[in-house]
Design brief:
The protein is mainly alpha-helical. Helices cover 66% and strands 0% of the residues.
């Protein structure tokens, strides 16, 4: 049985009412050699990482590199696979992020353990901090994701505290130039 059939994406499968999103389906299709649940989790994980990286409407090279490293470390993928997964997730997020963000995060919430959600939270801050500054938009997006994952506010505060030095809102502004 292929991963697509296992997940109900065969030719006869009805897409209406499916808990899976089109985004997750596309990424999962590239990972058919993996165990289906692992591929599903990895697809959602990568998409959510991209969600934070794109919160300020730009994904930097540093953020892309951080996502690839995280997917290699946490997902156990080769560098080539990680690059593919991250690039696909970036593309899907750019095209469908506005409509899929909540759906993919809700799907991740359904199958992830509390420990996996907390690990994701740390990874979200790591991606946002990879360019040495967590913008207010990125921080707000992480807070939304934390809420969608049904994590406590204390979890968000603890995660944020580990990356405090990168929060743009807490950085000193340069002095104004004399005219």
């Amino acid at each position: 049985m292929s991963i697509r059939e296992f997940l109900g994406f065969g030719a006869n499968a009805s897409h209406s009412g499916s808990a899976d999103t089109q985004t997750v389906r596309r990424i999962v299709a590239t990972l058919e050699a993996m165990e289906p649940q692992r591929a599903r989790a990895l697809a959602a994980f990568a998409f959510i990482l991209c969600r934070v990286a794109r919160a300020d409407l730009h994904v930097s090279d540093e953020e892309t590199g951080a996502m690839e490293r995280i997917v290699i470390e946490r997902g156990g993928l080769s560098e080539e696979q990680a690059i593919l997964v991250v690039q696909m997730a970036k593309t899907q997020n750019a095209l469908f992020g506005g409509t899929e963000n909540f759906l993919v995060t809700r799907e991740f919430d359904k199958f992830a353990t509390r420990e996996e959600k907390l690990a994701l939270l740390d990874c979200l801050f790591a991606v946002a901090a990879s360019d040495e500054s967590i913008s207010t938009a990125e921080d707000n997006e992480i807070a939304r994701i934390c809420s969608e994952l049904q994590l406590r506010h204390e979890d968000l505060v603890a995660g944020r505290a580990r990356y405090r030095e990168y929060l743009a809102v807490l950085k000193k502004s340069p002095p104004p130039h004399a005219a």
